[in-house]
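Hey team,

Filing this mostly as a record. A colleague (T.K.) asked me to run one chain through the structure pipeline before their review meeting, and I want the input and output archived in the tracker in case anyone asks later how it was produced. No errors, nothing strange. Just documentation.

Input sequence:
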Amino acid sequence: MKKILALVLALVLCLGMTMAQAEAAPVKVGILVPAVTHGWVGGITYNAEQYAKELEAAGKIEYKLFTSSNAEEMTTQIDEVMLWGAQALVIAPQWTGMEVAAQAAIDAGLTVVAFDMDIPAEGIYKVTGDNESMGVAGAKYIVEKIGTTGTVVALPVPSSGSVSELRMKGFTETMKEIAPEVEIIEYASAFTREAGLADMADILTANAKIDAVFSLDDETSIGALQAIADAGRTDIKAITGGGGCQEYFGIIKATPETGACSALYSPLMIKDCLDVAIAVVGGETVDAVKVIPSQIVSAENVDEYIDPANTVY
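Output structure:
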């Protein structure tokens, strides 16, 4: 009887050790990000790789990271990481046309997590920011700085489609609600500092007094602030931004008198994609869509967001 009990105990211990080893096995993750076309996109790659290295060092994942310039190239990379034996994919395309490849990976048993992109595939997970809440946060910040009257220049970017539309929607609807007497002047721009500089220079020439600027992007704001400084204008009491640019954070810290802020739509959210992938592969129940609300980074809290090691975005 004792021999039988000893044998059973040994088998239980062996099974327990095997299960523990299985639980501790790193998850194989393919990380597919776009080639850099904008500072924010560069930030995606930087944060994905930094966090992947951290997770790999902790024994939580093995990973392969690829960059691509179009849907065809990313599709080929999906095939490659599937052959490698990936259990999960984190993909951040900046274009349409990924639904077939994503569905094929899901059908093959992989967990697929998309970052900031709607991909019509059944069973896909998604992590995204909240563009509309960026506009809401920006409107509230401006009203805190200038009050409920004055003139605000908004810099929508029509070429960015729903990104600009949603940010402007949140902004204009909130302004109508909390400061209906504020005059809003719209001037189409682009998500580059060159556009911010050139467009803001024109705006300043055409408008003798402006109380605030609703910019939708940090890099646009960097250019706009340069134009304001070059013109020697002191009437502008607030300027927003959007994204999560370290250079802009430095400007916010160094020049609090500008009233500059950023409404976060941070590349750091790519980390949440990896967390979701690991959780799902580990058997946890996870919401299909995770929306991360925007937060304001201003001179009051910017120190919390500065990463001296990040020279990319």
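Quick notes for T.K.: Residues 26-128+267-282 form a domain with the Rossmann fold fold (CATH 3.40.50.2300). Residues 251 and 260 are 8 Å apart (CA to CA).
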